[in-house]
Amino acid sequence: MSAFVVLGAQWGDEGKGKMTDYLAEKAEVIVRFQGGNNAGHTVEVEDKQYKLHLIPSGILYGNKLNVIGNGVVIDPKALFEEIDYLEGLGVKVTPENLIISDRAHIIMPYHKILDKLKEKSRGKNDIGTTGKGIGPAYTDKVERCGIRVCDLLHTEVFKEKLYENIKTKNDIIVKVYEEEALDFNSICDEYLIYAERIRPFVKDISVRVYDEIKSGKNILFEGAQGTLLDIDYGTYPYVTSSNTIAGGVPSGAGIGPSMIDKVVGIAKAYTTRVGKGPFPTELNDKIGEWIREKGHEYGVTTGRSRRCGWLDLVILKSSARISGLTSFVVTKIDTLAGLSKIKVCTGYKLGDKVIDYFPASLEDLAKCEPVYEEFDGWDESVGDARNYEELPENAKKYLKKIEDFTGVKVSIVSVGPRRDQTIVIEEIL
Ligand code: GDP
Ligand code: IMO
Ligand code: MG
Questions:
Q1: Residue nearest atom 6 of ligand 1, based on CA coordinates
Q2: Active-site position among 41, 53, 105, 111
Q3: d(CA 30, CA 221)
Q4: What is the CATH number of domain 105-198?
Q5: Cα(first)–Cα(last) distance of the chain, in Å?
Q6: Residue 50's beta-bridge partner residues?
Q7: Ligand 3 centroid to residue 297 C-alpha, Å
Q8: Phi, psi values for residue 140, rounded to 5°
Q9: Which element (helix H / strand E) includes 393?
Q10: Quick one: 267-424 is in which CATH superfamily?
Q11: In angstroms, what is the span from residue 78 Cα to ligand 1's centroid?
């Protein structure tokens, strides 16, 4: 029995979907504990590609229990579109293989509208949100006016809460942003249809996950986003609105921290970021463009191009500390193949000091100059490797540097998007 977490160690899009799917083979239960459909997780099985946003990446197996935890914010429209999309690809989604927390908060139309209006009003200081209503939905949760899944299932409670919310949100939409007011009746009718469709999936997921752990099952907690998008430890305010770090698991899935055995950090062999915010090792040059094209670095959720840069070990070390990582999975080393020299950031020069942690203040961060170590590159043969011995020597040196710098072992290396393009150095389970 093991409960283990798979999370992003950078700014998201590290390959969590691929690795969750790969590791899910040995798990019976896969749990999403935070975020919403701002996430975009790609899984490739044989010649088929699947893009998941809200539903855990374990769904493709058919016989695993997938759980949407209380820490997730759920857009029911997006949920049912995703279920229909999966069913269109031959993937069954039923109350037997998907359960949804009764405590999860619902994303309402006004959250999506306010996300976009607020973003527009930020002008040049915009965050670059996905516009999915994530921030406003979490805001309502903390402000204690949110609508939960269990509220949606009680028609009178839902109507009352919706009425109050529409009243206050319309005030903001009309008076602050001078946009058109929302209509209570049409939203109410739309969501009451969702209520009936979601009802069979709804459970107290804390009870179920606890029972599964106690009965000796392997449970995989699938993170969305990444450490530097965490609301507390990310590059605030250029972050998402949830705890993406391992600390988000107990509160987002209703389990005790002592139940978690392992925390696996997924790290891309270089760094990418979508949206605004600081990025010390960003490459605004031909190499950055080359990495973007070779690695197909375009957002799964918004289609935006991802900013690309060198691997930043300061970020990985910070991630290892904050989430208590027990191992790394390094993805996309095949993308770097062909570069003669590859740089790795091993510290930030701040004044007359070199620091190896990520500063809180963006003003301090702006003054940080990355200190680089240069590595010799490797060739395309890396993509054909299926065990550690077959990896080019220079790629092995690169992986060793990650281990030495962070003090965390690299257990798996990914050399391509498909399940079989995976090298296990040490079994995680
Ligand atoms: P996630 O959000 O962390 O699940 O990652 P995304 O799916 O947004 O982005 C990762 C992309 O890289 C996807 O298109 C994956 O199919 C792809 N990918 C994952 N691992 C590898 C790898 O080792 N090599 C290559 N070339 N692509 C990979
Ligand atoms: P996965 O799970 C990369 C980024 C957005 C924006 C910021 C806030 O696929 O790794 P939000 O809509 O959450 O309020 O946007 O966070 N962001 C992601 N970047 N991968 C993601 O998810 C992301 N989810 C949100 O681009 O900068
Ligand atoms: Mg993604």
A1: 13
A2: 41
A3: 6
A4: 1.10.300.10
A5: 9
A6: 43
A7: 10
A8: -65, -35
A9: helix 393-406
A10: Adenylosuccinate Synthetase, subunit A, domain 3 (3.90.170.10)
A11: 22
CA distances from 119 to 92, 125, 135, 136 (A): 37, 9, 10, 11
Q: Does the CB atom of residue 21 touch ligand 1 within 6 A?
A: no
pLDDT per residue as tens digits for the range 295-346 = 999 999 899 999 999 999 999 999 999 999 999 999 999 999 999 999 999 9
52, 84, 328, 385, 397 from 374: Cα distances, Å:
36, 48, 21, 23, 11
Q: Does 261 contact ligand 1 (Cβ within 6 A)?
A: no
Task: Spell out the residues 6+ positions from residue 224 whose beta carbon is closer than 8 angstroms to its own.
Answer: 8, 12, 16, 32, 34, 35, 36, 38, 39, 41, 244
Q: What are the sequence ranges of the domains in the chain?
A: 3-103+201-262, 105-198, 267-424
Quote the crossing angle between the two packed helices 393-406 and 313-323, to the nearest 10°: 50
Tell whether the model's pLDDT for residue 370 goes beyond 80: yes
Residue 111 among the catalytic residues: no
- For the Cβ of 334 lying below 6 angstroms from any atom of ligand 1, the answer is yes
Active site residue 296: no
Does the reported pTM lie above 0.85?
yes
Give the list of residues 6+ apart from residue 45 with CB closer than 8 angstroms, or none: 21, 60, 418, 419
> What residue owns the CA closest to ligand 1's atom 12?
15
Q: How, if at all, do strands 353-355 and 341-350 pair?
A: antiparallel
301 lines ligand 1 (CB under 6 A): no
Instruction: Look up the CATH architecture of domain 3-103+201-262.
Output: 3-Layer(aba) Sandwich (3.40)
Cα–Cα distances in angstroms (integers) from residue 334 to residues 152, 291, 306, in the given order: 46, 11, 18
Atom of ligand 1 nearest to the CA of 17: 4
List % helix, strand, coil for the chain (3-state, nearest 5). Answer: 40, 20, 40
Mutate to test the pocket of ligand 1, among 270, 332, 384, 391 (most ligand atoms within 8 A of CB): 332
Q: Tell me what percent of the residues of the chain surpass a pLDDT of 70.
A: 100
Answer yes or no: is the C-beta of 20 below 6 A from any ligand 1 atom: no
Contacts of 289 (CB under 8 A, 6+ apart): 308
Q: How far apart are CA 88 and CA 56, in angstroms?
A: 17
Q: Could you tell which of 140, 229, 268, 319 is best to mutate to test the pocket of ligand 2, judged by most ligand atoms within 8 Å of the CB?
A: 229
